[in-house]
Amino acid sequence: MKIGKLPESVLVRSILKQVKHRRDEVLVGPGVGQDCAALQLKEGEVFVMSTDPITGTTKDLGSHSIHITANDLAASGAEPVGVMLTAMLPDTVEEPEIRRLMQDIERTCEQLGMEVLGGHTEITNVVLQPLISVTGVGKIRREELLSTMQMKPHQDIVISKWIGLEATTILAKEKDEELRRVFSEDFISTAKGFDAFLSVVEDARIAKKCQVSAMHDITEGGVFGALWEMAEGAGVGLEVDLKKIPIRQETVEICEFFGVNPYLIMSSGSMMIAADDGLLVVQELKKAGIEATVIGRTTAGNDRILRNGDDVRYLDRPQTDELYKVLG
């Protein structure tokens, strides 16, 4: 397509007409000539904002981008309301690809009860592959807002589902041919299917009812990065049992195949939760069919300790995500 703003005819039929789900809070939504969205809050509610560029994958980019942003909002305890999208697309893109991308975004938003509030789509030679930057908007009662600063010493640390889900499904899709040299069709298909677990919106909704103090979506930098960020944000120490960190065998084997560390790899789909009663959180999540595990405790000191049987090591500051070693 020609470089520049998306032609109005393409914008209308392949972008705007794909947006169907609506929420009562939205007074002004997407439209030709609309540069801003307008939302209305009820008394006592506050907006929560999050923004993310999605660069780690091109497969299922639409749904992936919405889940990542909705998860960030959910970690604050907020209800995700909608997203503003900036899509920068290479000049090799064709209109059917744009329409499929938008349909994927809209389908995921509808599943999560969110609305596409507006945005901008442009064809440019600055990018070599589609790039989406998503700004998410959520809402919450002021007194219910959570942040990592609220985590306290002597609390349980819970992880929902399994670490490495995001990276596993990305690698299974992006590196399908390489994996087929070693792994069976069923194995690869299962790994690709981990994208069904990427949302932690329900994890957060259930955990909130258990009087948790803080939640953190485990994204770039993996579980080790998330542990450091939560502890650093709250100014607490940690003592974590490495053997209790939940991980699927598919993740272990795919990470071994590519020579990367599963504890330092993108893990959206897994929520880290701090609570006085971690077993209660685990119990309530399991009632909803969501796996969860207590992996350790916060401490009053500054040490961030990882135990692996008799071996003890200290948690390092977040490093570059291992996924980039494979995808370049």
UniProtKB/TrEMBL annotation:
InterPro entries according to UniProt: HypE, PurM-like_C_dom, PurM-like_C_sf, PurM-like_N, PurM-like_N_sf
Residue ranges of every copy of the PurM-like N-terminal domain listed in the record: 33-140
Domain PurM-like C-terminal residues, every copy: 200-303
Superkingdom of origin: Bacteria
Family indicated by similarity: Belongs to the HypE family.
Protein name: AIR synthase family protein
Source organism per UniProt: Ruminococcus gauvreauii
